[in-house]
């Protein structure tokens, strides 16, 4: 976690707001200081505007899109004052942010918030959740035209630089009508990279796991929402608390929103460390189960997928790996030819099982789930049309049998145990017969008890770089 969303259907490489933020020294530079904007200047611990612009342009040329985490509900914590990462003064007590500029007129006060101490306590009360302060963060008055226009100006500036869209932070704490108004002010994307200037892709981080006054469905009219139930339910399956056979109906039948309304993920930067949306999800610290759940997510048609990429941490406040001067460490120790990360970076998106399943998803795009099979318990398999097939063994015993893959005859590379290098498989081969069947032998004790094949990694096919 260090900067932005970097997405390959959706491959989230780096998260984080890009605006000038408060410098928190106790604890020492926690990751979450970035969720306390001081101004909309693009200067953070990750770099300045020129460096950000260079990154966006370079990524766009490589067909990697950047989605910025837009923190527009609030500014800093209400107490204290100081100088932000871009040199702007801020005063949380006086509600003064001259770097924007915002002053006390631009924040919700006693007229809008009736909780007593200005903080949110009761999630059963919509007005309180939207007009009062989330963990004491000074709450912007988004009903005010000046505030809306400053936010839209910031987002349009990013669009002109070449970003592809936004992850909107804390929408539950903003009125859908105010968000709609701001989205309506956004320009089309930069035509230099996006011919025809399409609308930005927006997804909203609404934490809805039930039991509150506000539900994610209030926001799907504006743009997609994050689906937090998804990772919780899949964690139960891959921890063997709910049989995998039930995944046959995975999706809307599990009381989740429409597939076209959601962004789905196994974990995010909050719930992987017990912050927003709490824990209970699988993370990189449980790699075997995590890879299985991620592979299932990427193989299944439901939702717009996002892959997490992390740094390892001891405490839940700990910021990214850093040097003595607190500058962020690079992800690689030595040669860039080695894809794995060092220096405390986990880089799940560079794990073969995960990036090969991103390619799988791209290859099977547009197909339905077919040829479902399960053993009545924890072994499952399905195809995506006639383009891809996956078998996953969450059982405590081995899977050893013929299955109908729905794929054309040929030899395929299992993209979990290896890759297709253009002529041969670096891992296991799967031989699909003329009738579409193939034999699978998946040991439950394997590090990766699953096999995935697709027509993009069929021996003899032309190798395409699908990222
Ligand atoms: C989010 N999504 O809707 C982010 O994903 C989440 O990471 C943000 O909280 C939250 N909304 C607000 O943007 C994080 C972190 C909090 C942290 C805030 C602000 O999870 O713990 O709160 O950022 O930096 C921290 C302290 C909290 C304190 C607050 C204000 O943990 O105790 O409240 O700062 O000083 C007194
Ligand atoms: Ca609010």
Description:
The chain has 467 residues and is α/β, with parallel strands linked by helices. The protein folds into 2 domains: 7-363, Alpha-Beta Barrel (TIM Barrel); 368-457, Immunoglobulin-like (Sandwich), CATH 2.60.40.1180. Helices cover 18% and strands 17% of the residues. The protein is built from 7 helices and 19 strands. It has helices spanning 49-61, 126-131, 145-161, 176-184, 228-238, 287-299, 352-364, and strands spanning 5-7, 65-70, 74-77, 81-83, 89-91, 137-139, 165-168, 201-204, 224-226, 262-264, 304-305, 369-374, 379-384, 388-393, 399-404, 410-413, 429-432, 437-442, 450-454. The strands form 6 sheets. A 7-stranded mixed beta sheet has the order 1-2-7-8-9-10-11. Strand 4 and strand 5 form a beta hairpin. Helix 3 (145-161) crosses helix 4 and helix 6 runs parallel beside helix 7. Ligand LM2 binds at residues 32-33, 35-36, 71, 77, 134-137, 169-170, 205, 270, 275-276. The site of calcium ion (CA) has 5 residues, from loops.
